[in-house]
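Check these lines:
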Amino acid sequence: MATLQYTGVFALLIAEIFVFVLLILPMPTRWKRAMITWSSRSVVAQRVLYGVRIAFGFILLLFCDAVMRLRKVDQEKHKTRLVDEHALCQMRVQQFYAQRNTYLTGITMFLGLILISTHSLIAQLVSGEGAAEAGSTPRVTTSGPGSSKAENERLKGQLADARKELDELKKKDRDMETLKKQADSSHKEYMRLADECEGLRKKLGAASESKKDA
């Protein structure tokens, strides 16, 4: 009975691998969109997903059972010292099967979670590409007094915003020019004072030299 259960788990793992490879295969966006739409809306796909969720519950129980069996075998191996080759081989076989069942059920659940996440990400990507394609297609606008008035109001608003931004840019340019002029004038004044200070220093040096000579 246990062998039949783990055979079913292995079959589910193979099915998950097949679906995962099918999702990541490079194919045209139209085919992938059709596949994602069918898996999201089909009654058969919904029933299959419902059955897989129930199977995941049983796999979780099998995983817990396999972990408990593995711990039990390890505890018995550390507690008892086996001399008989047949008993030792039997314990190693039990340990091998417990490890195999643990890895099999764990990988099946882990791959199932990855498959669900991959399906949702691809569905979002495909829907985003569809929305982008729909937005890039030209829209036919209805001609009428109401639509033309709304369009004019929208254009007036955009023009007013553009004028405000232009005025702000001009104001910033004027402020930059003013600061630049102030900086230039401050630099010139500083250079003039430095020259005057240097001239005074030279005059004082010459006067002191003439006093020493006298």
In short: The first helix runs from residue 2 to 24. The helical segments are 2-24, 29-41, 43-79, 85-136, 145-213. The chain is about 90% helix and 0% strand.
